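step 4 of 6: structure.
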Amino acid sequence: MTDYARRTWFVLWKDLLTERRSKENLNALFFFSLLLLFLFQFALGPDRRSLEAALPGLLWLGFILAGLLGLGRSFIAERDNDCWEGLLLTPGDKSAIYLGKLVGNFILMAVVELVLLVLFGFFFGVALWPVAAPLALVLLLGTTGLAAVGTLFAAITAQLRARELLFPVLLLPAQVPILLAAVSATDAALNGTPLAEAAHWLKLLAGADLVYIVIGLLTFEFIIEG
Amino acid sequence: MISASRLRKSFGRTVVLEDLSLDVATGQCVALLGPNGSGKTTLLRILATVLRPSGGTLSLDGVDALKRPEAARAIVGVVGHGSWVYEDLTALENLRFWTAMRGGSASPTRLQAALQQLDLDAVSHDRARTFSAGMKRRLALARVALSDARILLLDEPFTGLDRQGRKWLGEFLYQFKAGGGTVVLATHSFLGGLDVADRIAILYGGRFALDRPAAELSWDALRRLYDDITGGSA
């Protein structure tokens, strides 16, 4: 294993182990998701047609709100006991830290999304299994983008006093292209439309993912240096 | 070896360090004394490349630390005010993480041996959340002992340590110096670290008010000089 891959792995290992022990993010996100589902259920009522039209948007609204909670906390552990300073002083390419954090955030978001999807299917009576493959592709691309840009902005705001306010203010505009593409592609996937017809949205998603990951890898060193 | 020349640091209009120069030879330990707010921590943070000075030059073992901080960080070990301890990881896991991040061997045997030296082997599988401040300090020292640093920068390293921990740290610093290592330790207390120091420097008002070989200063003489310079600030 190269030194870069080794350091990426150890950041990921540390983050997942910390989350497994504390369950701070997972517990909060699970109950938050459940609350959202109840609210959506009450708001939409039993009207099946309005549900079908709103479902892709609701799904991503749930994902983005849960993501805001989880991503915003992804650097909290680094602030305790000056661990941020420790990461700054580890020799080597700092983008390995970003990559480890990004993968950790992706896994956390994916777990929450999976739970939300299952609950959505159960609460709204939506058959998700037949559209699982195209939906999984859309979720993979959309979640990667959200995690990439979210990890970057979480790092930028981690050391700021008004981070809880600034994080969503900075993050949401940057997520617009991802959300537009993800909601449209999810709509196509849920309606059983062949994904080829939504290829332009998938290309936009993949492009945005690539741009945000590259920006994150290139700029993380400057962010952590402050 | 540390060679800092005319270091300046200001935060806004507040000047913390003013044209400060410091040379520490290989195998030497300098103890920085000074009251709270005298700039000790700022100086250590600049030497550690955490902070950039407003002016001056800094070379660590021949590496220009201002132009090549990454190269300098590979040879520097730091124990600052924060312990760099992750609360939800065990002592062993904390050491494993930081050792691996520095590219060192994180074999369990090596890590356990370091914990044993600092009397933390009995709690090696306990989460750091349950540790006292002194235990976290010892864990931070174990981290530094495992690193391949050639320069150690220690901020109040003896604070919070019990007698056994202080004894271990003193012996470790003697060994480190004997192996060609360079040490700068900052303290505002006369109780810790002065016996390891080859030179004692008193930092006051952003400048060195005194920089003398430790052998030339008796404890009483140092106390008198310190009181004269700082006006008796603790």
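step 5 of 6: annotate
 - Chain A has one domain: 3-225.
 - Chain A has a mean pLDDT of 89.
step 6 of 6: archive
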